[in-house]
Amino acid sequence: MLTFWDLLFFLKKSYFFENRIETFAVSVVIIIKKTIKMKKTKQYVGLSLFAAVGLFLIAADHADAPAVTGNASDITDVYAFQGQDSNNLVFVVNSQGLLSPSATAMASFNENVLTEINIDNNNDNVEDLVIQAIKRGNKMYFFGPVAPGTAGTSSTIKTSAASGSVDISQYGQAPVIATNNGMKFFAGPRDDPFFFDLNQYKAILAGTATGFNNPGTDTFAGTNVLSTVIEVPKTALGTSSTVNVWVETKQKQ
Amino acid sequence: MKTYKYKVIAAVILTSLSLVSCNDNDDNQVIDYGPDFSGTYVQKDQMARPAINTVFVASGTPKDNFNMTTPSMMAASYQSVFESRLLALNPGYTTNALGQTAAQFTGLLATDVLNVSKTATTTFFDGTNVLTGRTLADDVIDVELLLIFGGPSGTSNAELTSDHVNANDKAFTLSFPYLASAW
């Protein structure tokens, strides 16, 4: 199947080697502008924009889980590592992958999607603590680490354990960082830190290639994600020497 | 004239009393000027180790189902599914560089949680530490490819054990929020 990425690869090869997605997006915009001139009706502008958005949604289709692909619930990556201050752990949750630079300013967190970092500190793979993040207005609000009301796939927001909030950073602006009770908070667009020649992997699985290229091509180069980053003192996560971590997105009913 | 004055004063007192009683009624209402965080939130997506659902679970409904399975229930439901998938990807699998059999390796992967150390170096794999976290710079795909395709010494299927994309396309920062600015 000819995907957006195949098309992009073709464009890169043939005309726009350096400018990649941006150039492609610009060309889409040019097509839209031409359409406006030709038709001069709002309907056609709407249709063209819809088509452009559709292309980007197809681009983000790599995970193939139908319920979340291409929407605000789609987690692209989770990171957990020791902070610059070695007394802290950092949690990074990325969503809405493969955002082109021109699509990034328009991408936004969803007020009906709760992000929940689950922390198991007695190795039974059931969460003992959660850190919750959710957007309201132009801010991201954070709760916990706190014991969840109930473990599992259904959650309420632990409003009694509010831990801070941060203004959502805008595309092209310096990151807004909030600090409260030893925790740090960030929410907004960032470069996607993930790197992988996903297209070659797909070609191998499809039987059209027998191995990776050297050098490979980073499918995620030049693309952005919406990041939520939380730094928390290790002491707030219990007394165990290791924890098990996973992240969920949950939709308001 | 005097009587009129008293009437006015009485009216004012009565009015103010009624206003006070109105105010009492207002106190019964909860006035909250903060955001509303009420309601129940039900799971849509779930993730821990990179690319596990992508690689080991079949497309479509099975991927959605995996996203709805709590980690404590995953091993029972998915170890055999993952083992079949592993052997389909690499029919010649014996053990990997960690010495794990197909059953042991997929038993570890099927419970999709990220193990994170609070005392040691945090990394997916750095040559010494294994699965003690995940930093931004970790080449997690090469680690997974090596364990899936590399055999007991990591030297089998050389064309499949690295995608030869070894680093991000933008440098990370030493301080919070650590991720590079958007393109």
UniProtKB/TrEMBL annotation, chain A:
Q: Which InterPro entries match?
A: DUF4331
The name this protein goes by in its record = DUF4331 domain-containing protein
Q: Which Pfam families match?
A: DUF4331
Does the keyword Transmembrane helix feature in the UniProt annotation? yes
* UniProt keywords, alphabetically: Membrane, Transmembrane, Transmembrane helix
Q: Any stretches that span the bilayer, and where are they?
A: 15-32, 44-60
Source organism's superkingdom?
Answer: Bacteria
Automatic annotation (TrEMBL), chain B:
InterPro entries xref list: DUF4331
Keyword line = Signal
- Pfam families on file: DUF4331 (PF14224)
Show which residues constitute the signal peptide: 1-21
Does the keyword Signal feature in the UniProt annotation? Answer: yes
The cross-references to PROSITE patterns, in alphabetical order and at most eight, read: PROKAR_LIPOPROTEIN
Record's keyword annotation contains Signal: yes
Q: What is this protein called?
A: DUF4331 domain-containing protein
Q: Which species is this record about?
A: Flavobacterium terrae
